């Protein structure tokens, strides 16, 4: 029995597309703010940078709010919204602040809440205490 070759027509293969919003901070490295592929939007990890490029220095709740505002701008640029977020990953440098982050999270998202993973990490870019990435539907 010989192997079967499957070929896809170029019209059936969706290429990835980078998304960039001027209402969110520019990436601090060689990556896109988000990428659309196969009907999903993959947001890169966002730290609490304000749109002017300065770090939000407030408590974890206000840092989370800054991240969500940036994510919302990027999602809107792609034609989506926070309501279409299916998965969130939260990276924290100190899980003792989990309750405060969780409170801000519950205000940013509505039921049914996205699936979520939260992990403590040793360090984050630019000395941030919080980083969040998301996957959403178009």
Produce the secondary structure layout.
Layout lengths: L16 E3 L14 E4 L2 E7 L13 H19 L6 E8 L5 H11 L6 E6 L9 E8 L1
Parallel strand pairs: 4-5
Antiparallel strand pairs: 1-2, 2-3, 3-6, 4-6
Helix pairs in contact: 1-2
- Helix/strand/pairing class, anyone? alpha+beta
CATH class: Alpha Beta
Q: How many domains make up the 3D coordinates?
A: 1
Strand order of the largest sheet: 1-2-3-6-4-5
Q: Kindly report the average pLDDT value.
A: 91
N- and C-termini, Cα separation: 41 Å
Number of strands: 6
What is the element string, with H for helices and E for strands? EEEHEHEE
How many helix segments? 2
Strand residue content: 25-35%
Q: Largest sheet, if any?
A: 6 strands, mixed
As residue ranges, the low-confidence spans are none
The CATH fourth-level homologous superfamily: RutC-like
- Kindly report the CATH topology: 60s Ribosomal Protein L30, Chain: A
CATH architecture: 2-Layer Sandwich
Q: How large, in whole angstroms, is the Cα Rg?
A: 17 Å
Overall geometry: globular
Percentage of residues assigned to helices: 10-25%
């Amino acid at each position: 029995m010989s192997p079967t070759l499957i070929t896809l027509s170029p019209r059936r293969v969706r290429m990835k597309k980078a998304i960039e919003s001027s209402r969110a901070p520019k990436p601090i490295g060689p990556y896109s703010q988000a990428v659309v592929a196969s009907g999903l939007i993959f947001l890169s990890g966002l730290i609490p940078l304000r749109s002017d490029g300065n770090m939000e220095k407030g408590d974890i709740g206000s840092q989370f709010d800054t991240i969500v505002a940036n994510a919302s701008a990027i999602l809107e640029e792609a034609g989506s919204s926070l309501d279409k977020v299916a998965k969130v990953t939260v990276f924290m440098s100190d899980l003792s602040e989990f309750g405060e982050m969780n409170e801000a999270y519950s205000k940013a998202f509505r039921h049914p809440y996205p699936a979520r993973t939260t992990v403590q990490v040793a360090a984050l870019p630019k000395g941030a205490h919080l980083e969040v990435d998301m996957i959403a539907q178009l």
